[in-house]
Amino acid sequence: MDGFTLLELLGVLLLVGVLIGMVGIVGNSTPQRQAQQQGRLFIQLLQHARQQAVLEGREYAIRFDTQDFQLMKWRGGSWETAGKVQSTGMDLRLEVDGHVVGAGEGDRQPQLLVLSSDETSAFRLHFEQAGLRMVSVSSDGLNEALIDE
To answer: Which residue in 3, 6, 11, 73 is deepest, having the highest Cβ count within 10 Å?
Structure first.
């Protein structure tokens, strides 16, 4: 018998289709998509912090640098880290109550408060690359944070 069976040809086509799909997923990592992913990760961290603040009756906060952020908690009269630094690979610009807040480089004080009353500072966080806003995350302080594209 010469040639391939129909089953063999279908198997090869399936394999080629899967490989093309994987290349499309990996190769389609645009700055916009990365910003959306970072925005979703930030929202998850904020939701976790709100839950922990209510459950523990303790104040939490988030400290921002130019490209990363870190969860902090109030203990013994001062802020201490409550998790590892989350690097975004993008420039972050934070507005709290309508005012631009500078990055906390060298300053260990957080800029965004997460209160045990299940409230946060009203904020808008911009994820930027090359001076262009890719995605923003915002909250009025009472409701869940949302991604604004």
So the answer is: 73
Give the pLDDT score at 27. Answer: 56
The DSSP code for 120 is B
Output the six-digit token pair for 82.
């409550």
Superfamily of 31-148 according to CATH: minor pseudopilin epsh domain (3.55.40.10)
Which residue would you say has higher pLDDT here, 105 or 109?
Answer: 109
CA 11 to chain centre: 39
Q: Which residues pair with 77 in a beta bridge?
A: none
Dihedral, 30, 67, 48, 61 alpha carbons, nearest 10:
-160
DSSP 116: T
Q: Which long-range contacts (CB under 8 A, 24 or more apart) does 117-121 make?
A: 117/54, 118/50, 118/53, 118/54, 120/46, 120/50, 120/145, 121/96, 121/97
pLDDT, position 108: 73
